[in-house]
Design brief:
Layout (H helix, E strand, L loop, with lengths): L3 H8 L4 H19 L12 E2 L5 E2 L11 E9 L4 E9 L1
Antiparallel strand pairs: 1-2, 3-4
Helix pairs in contact: 1-2
The structure holds coenzyme A (COA).
Amino acid sequence: MFSRDELAYAMKSQKKWERLAVRFAAKEAVWKALGVGGLGLKDISIKRSGNGMPFVDLKELGLPKNRKASLSLSHSDNYAVAYCLVYRE
Ligand SMILES: CC(C)(COP(=O)(O)OP(=O)(O)OC[C@H]1O[C@@H](n2cnc3c(N)ncnc32)[C@H](O)[C@@H]1OP(=O)(O)O)[C@@H](O)C(=O)NCCC(=O)NCCS
């Protein structure tokens, strides 16, 4: 369910399971916030900007250009939580 980049980023870290867990949570959060059918977890890719901020490119999913998503991810030893806010610009 993860992209090559997601796996590479997680696996190089000592927090690999946290990073995979939070990306799983993020994919689900995006999926739920969008509320559109026909999307699988692997279709939704969690990317990182230069400063480490996570984002998802909704254009890749074929959604209109004015549709945007904001993500917030957080993880610790036992918990991973992701919030996704989808809005129209
Ligand atoms: C970004 C920061 C807040 C992350 O906090 P943390 O305690 O290391 O870890 P958390 O589990 O809460 O968050 C980690 C996630 O934050 C996200 N993140 C990283 N840099 C980010 C940024 N610049 N903007 C938004 N989110 C960011 C990533 O998704 C990261 O997950 P990843 O490591 O799997 O890629 C912290 O590293 C940092 O830079 N602090 C600087 C001080 C500051 O501005 N704090 C704000 C407090 S409100």
